[in-house]
Amino acid sequence: MRNHAADAKVFKAFCDVNRLQILEQLRTGEKCSCVLLEKLQISQSTLSYHMKILCDSGVVIGRSEGKWTHYGLSRDGCRYARELLEILTGENASTGNCCSCKK
Amino acid sequence: MRNHAADAKVFKAFCDVNRLQILEQLRTGEKCSCVLLEKLQISQSTLSYHMKILCDSGVVIGRSEGKWTHYGLSRDGCRYARELLEILTGENASTGNCCSCKK
DNA sequence: ATCACCCATTGACTTTTTTCGATTTGAGAG
DNA sequence: CTCTCAAATCGAAAAAAGTCAATGGGTGAT
Known about the structure:
The structure is a homodimer of 103-residue chains.
Chain A: H1 4-12, H2 17-26, E1 31-32, H3 33-38, H4 44-57, E2 60-65, E3 68-73, H5 75-89
Antiparallel strand pairs in A: 1-3, 2-3
Helix pairs in contact in A: 1-4
The structure holds a DNA duplex (30 and 30 nucleotides).
């Protein structure tokens, strides 16, 4: 029996347009906020808000270095998300017809 | 260049606790609304709302039969969701260090 | 110490999502 | 045709998510 709240948190990362744009930027490697921000139409505080959600989901990791914070995809977090989706939708799921509706 | 709004729609299916519970029920085969409802703490109209979102995401398909509508996982829709996540998080994504921050 | 810069947090506001009761629609059954 | 039942839709309210400007905290440069 799964923890649905925890699972939902993981997929929160992928259900917002701005976050998908951020993830797209991260696919080519680590970026710091200032660089991410250049290609987005949002304020700095809004970006920070989204980065928090991405980090909380486990898909992204932040790495502090001096003044900067570098964000990158978490290999483990990404794999976990894919495994989760596999569990939820995997081919082993039954697609048989319904028999529960007592006509 | 991806259509982020369309992609976000797919993952909307997985980022809500009630919808995850519904998907869990559907893993064991088709169910009609009345059966799904029994195991959820929501009203009939709310369930209908969630079923619409699930169907719009492509992950679930509704099949009308007389008075009943049977809902089931869409094999194609589920595969598409997994492929999408693979593209967004796949191992081919770079995890190299940032070089864009001119120190 | 002071300044400039990067980023997180706060508080207020707007927008979107979720929820429900009531109503409507559509499909058998009598 | 009328009645009943399953499910969708509507309208309104509540809850949650997203947004920004302003502020604060930490770091490195001067």
